[in-house]
Task: structure prediction
Amino acid sequence: SRSEKNMNNKILIVSANYYKEISNNLELGTINTLKENGYEYEIINAPGCFEIPYLIKKNIDNFKGFISLGCIIKGDTYHFEVIANETSRKIMDLSVEFQVPIGFGILTCYDLDQAIVRSDINQKNKGQEAALACIELLK
Result:
């Protein structure tokens, strides 16, 4: 169980950096939003989105909230659906089971152009949205 004494007041950002440009933009949106709202944070990288739930679970007792960032782009096989569905399901399971807010900033796009728009700091930056969701739940 999550005990208050172990937990610092920080948010952990778990960022899959498979698509570097995309993850950098998502991280920027997240970090700016956390700073604007007075939150401290740490960031760790995952090799891909599938590894994000493992890293959240490994750190579940040490942070007040989490933000998951990454990008999954559809290819020609069923792989996209498996990764997107299983990753999001496990993140939701962790959030509910441990009663911890986890902002969901994982893009699921049909192509790189969609991902660029959804990660752009001046457009629909989903990192910012994920950070705002996490902050809202912490209030």
User: Anything to note?
Assistant: The chain has five helices and four strands. The radius of gyration is 14 Å.
